[in-house]
Amino acid sequence: MPCGGNWRSQIGRSVIVLYADSEVSYDGRAVSRAGRAWRLIIIKPDGTLLIHTDQGYQPMNWQPPGSRISVTETSDGKLIIYSTRQRPREVIRVVVYGIEWACWGMPSEGAFRLTGTHEDVKEWIVRNIQRIIPGGRVISVEYEIPGHGIADILAEDASGRKIVIEVKRQCADLHAVSQLRRYADALNAGGILVAPCFTSGARRLAREYGFQLVTLDPSDLSPGTAGAN
Amino acid sequence: MPCGGNWRSQIGRSVIVLYADSEVSYDGRAVSRAGRAWRLIIIKPDGTLLIHTDQGYQPMNWQPPGSRISVTETSDGKLIIYSTRQRPREVIRVVVYGIEWACWGMPSEGAFRLTGTHEDVKEWIVRNIQRIIPGGRVISVEYEIPGHGIADILAEDASGRKIVIEVKRQCADLHAVSQLRRYADALNAGGILVAPCFTSGARRLAREYGFQLVTLDPSDLSPGTAGAN
DNA sequence: CGTGCCAGGTGCCTT
DNA sequence: AAGGCACTTGGCACG
């Protein structure tokens, strides 16, 4: 059974899960200190370190892939787990007072496919530009505007006027409108914001800036509908 | 030893960790399908579900706190784990073909303190506004501009001209400049961007918009220095 | 509950 | 490596 005391031999080879009584300190872009408590510690072979509590999606502390981990033992028998990352320089130090159980395994992602992403929506629009700009055409995708960022789609309408299209897969907010403005201003172009929904503020601001809103839900990517708004 | 076959009795009471041969499907804001493979499954009492592979900070699939979990058994002995979330409606379905080990425990966050945050930087600036705007004063913090968002700090310089200060704890980018512009435009005010560093694009754009840059590192919050730029 | 915005954001891709 | 940006972003605070 892959649970036992020799988990240290699995470092770099398996995903190790420890249930440990521990203190955690983090020093890097920010600083954190966590007093002694039982926590879930996950060590992945790619250098990822995750320290989870009883609640929440996010770990209490972590270290990303590529970090270097080491485990040492103090003279009085306590374990100390170090995880170090360069650029930015960040260190996690876990003092382990006790381990109730330690298990490991070699999980994998397996075949994995994710759909309904921003990329999918963008591709749909390129193929169905007529539904967004009747009589228009796509000039470029991921169009870089030097010093101003990268526009999702650059198109032109029937009259030849340039139009920047900014695509969001979730409700568009003020940030999305500001982003679109940055592109449209730089190109002296019109702007269309495509999203499944819009916050009230986004609607106001888009109106103020003269941008058009188009409602398009990622789940409606079929030959379906795109309702102008 | 808290590892064994009766982990299902711990649902809602402990954090459960399964090492399982499984298929995972996710349907919600996006859609994902993951073929059969060994994966690490974590079930927290707050409804959080995390499915981890051998690499990366992020789980392959997940469900946030507040989700409802249930485990059923098919006629041929396979387990199926359902996790459902409303608003947005999202469902994860895990078909479990086998479990190599199942362990649990009741971790906690314990005493935890994080410093060096955005809030810390903002407070430092309010206390040391003279270092940012010599002769100026703070008018308001978290100043809401209706329909345009919330400015970090609204101040005025020695001549009484309004200045919006946008604070970043990491390198400021185009997004930060756009955000500042949204505020400054709405108030017809000047703008100062405070950050530990700036991307090349952010420098260009800030110059174009007439914003001032001030370099301030979160780790130098002592009575230290704030270098205008 | 929606709106807005930070996060030690992370991850992906392109120059 | 730096820059730009999406993410099933998650999480928080406020009206």
From TrEMBL, chains A, B:
Keywords: Cytoplasm, DNA-binding, Endonuclease, Hydrolase, Nuclease. One of its GO terms (cellular component) is cytoplasm. Residues 119-219 form the Endonuclease NucS C-terminal domain. It is found in: Cytoplasm. Signal peptide: none annotated. Belongs to the NucS endonuclease family. This is Endonuclease NucS. It comes from Vulcanisaeta souniana JCM 11219.
